[in-house]
Amino acid sequence: MEEAYQNIEHDAGDPEALDDLMQKIADHKGCGTSGGSGKSSCGTGAGANDLAPEIWEKVKNHPCYSEEAHHHYARMHVAVAPACNIQCNYCNRKYDCANESRPGVVSEKLTPEQAAKKVLAVASTIPQMTVLGIAGPGDPLANPEKTFKTFELISRTAPDIKLCLSTNGLALPDHVDTIAKFNVDHVTITINMTDPEIGAKIYPWIFWKHKRITGYEAAKILTDRQLQGLEMLTERGILCKINSVMIPGVNDKHLVEVNRAVKSRGAFLHNIMPLISAPEHGTVFGLTGQRGPSAQELKALQDSCEGEMNMMRHCRQCRADAVGLLGEDRSAEFTTDKIMEMEVNYDLESRKAYQSKVEEERIAKVEAKNAELETLAGASSDIQILIAVATKGSGRVNEHFGHAKEFQVYELSTKGAKFVGHRRVDLYCQGGYGEEDALETVIRAINDCAAVFVAKIGGCPKDSLRAAGIDPVDQYAFEFIEQSAIAYFKDYLAKVNSGEIAHVIRGDADIRQGAYVPV
Ligand code: CLF
Ligand code: SF4
């Protein structure tokens, strides 16, 4: 297998450049620990002026590594890796890898050659698709031939696409050199524990050195291999993101320790995701009634870890064959049948031209936000509110309430508008009429928000939202989200200060647990 990879040049750069980059990543580790304004200069929300240029170059159009980028750039996954070498209690083999995906079956598994064709077809149709990830449906490194063959084909035919990998980490130390050789410079490791006692409650077994190992011993091997793999990757200047599944009563408190352990080993980002668990998924946790966290439980844990390290909060737990912006799924447009009939016209120049338009929009968005933020300068208040936003991308309020499949959630304060999560919902509008049951689930999903920003909304849902204490806001239709949110907050504060409205502390909200049904 190794010989097949020899023809790919390892382009990690000269040793001095690598040292320099590693130093910058190491410096990055320091942010957030000393308090003050340094905190805001790292993590997914960071912009061009906040990160070392080399790191910014790596993350600026990666939708998972940059929250800001995820409004504009898309990723795709190719499902070339069916086998797995461990068992997680939140995974049912019939379903996507739950580490990286919603509980929905992968439509079809691909050969590396089919995957390479699919990447070209998507790249020529979606010019803002910048990242190719392999994330299952099993573990990519339990299928190394298929995974690296796919990377080899794509790095030859579509060299502008970043390569990304997600793994449970058991086999990681054996493949770090190959990962570096293929210029895969973004690797996600799912680490749910560093304490094998806790690990034994999450992983019934691992398959290691041709043997099935269970219990404490299995979890000990897994955690040792995960942390070893992380250290090896960061030593080589490869950006690492850690995904952790928050399982209330099992590892929720322990994840603060996990956060410290991965931070100290140079991880760039930590993504704490909610366990999604329902009996219909057929998982151990689903069948035993293990619940997932509420929206506020998840946010509280993410906030508590943010003192150590910035957190990814925009993960959509996507399918192993997902295509598109993180909040959308266009995989049904790119089935193998359709791809085989497609005329593929992979044109690097037109991709670049499109992306430079995206950059112009992105700069305009940041300028608009900063200008609005200046008008808040000097304002002093402890009040914070959450708002929900209906958007289909580009950082604008551009989705109708009834068409929203998810809402993005922003926290507003005198510091500005900060993205803190998203909530998947059932469609309210079903073929032209409003679905009242769906409206109830939407309200439960955004119950912790003071307002919902939409491009358009009908009279009935408006009344129901108001009755639930949520302000339906359509005055910012098609405007930039953050600029609008800051303007709204300024107005909100003025009304509270004048006594026109009372500031109300909102309650908790639901994270959707049911199986995802693509529409
Ligand atoms: Fe895919 Fe993962 Fe790469 Fe992103 S997903 S392999 S880093 S390109 Fe992203 Fe999807 Fe969350 Fe993963 S939103 S599940 S974090
Ligand atoms: Fe499932 Fe992924 Fe866990 Fe393997 S690593 S058992 S595919 S969730």
Describe this entry's structure for a reader.
The chain is of the alpha/beta class. The protein folds into two domains: 43-341, TIM Barrel, CATH 3.20.20.70; 378-498, Dinitrogenase iron-molybdenum cofactor biosynthesis domain (Nucleotidyltransferase, domain 5). It has helices at residues 2-5, 15-29, 53-59, 112-125, 144-157, 172-181, 196-202, 215-235, 255-264, 284-288, 295-306, 336-341, 348-374, 436-445, 459-467, 481-498; strands at residues 74-77, 86-87, 129-134, 162-167, 186-190, 205-208, 211-214, 239-246, 269-274, 323-324, 385-389, 406-413, 416-424, 429-430, 433-434, 451-453, 471-473. A seven-stranded mixed beta sheet has the order 9-8-5-4-3-1-10. It is globular, with a radius of gyration of 22 Å. The chain starts with a helix and ends in a 21-residue tail after the last helix. 50% of the residues are buried. The model is unreliable at 1-15, 21-43 and 515-519 (pLDDT under 50). The protein binds FE(8)-S(7) cluster and iron/sulfur cluster. FE(8)-S(7) cluster is lined by residues 64, 75, 77, 100, 131, 133, 135, 164, 166, 186, 188, 271, 315-318, 326. The site of iron/sulfur cluster has 12 residues, from strand 2. Keywords: 4Fe-4S, Iron, Iron-sulfur, Lyase, Metal-binding, Nitrogen fixation, S-adenosyl-L-methionine. One of its GO terms (molecular function) is 4 iron, 4 sulfur cluster binding. Belongs to the radical SAM superfamily. NifB family.
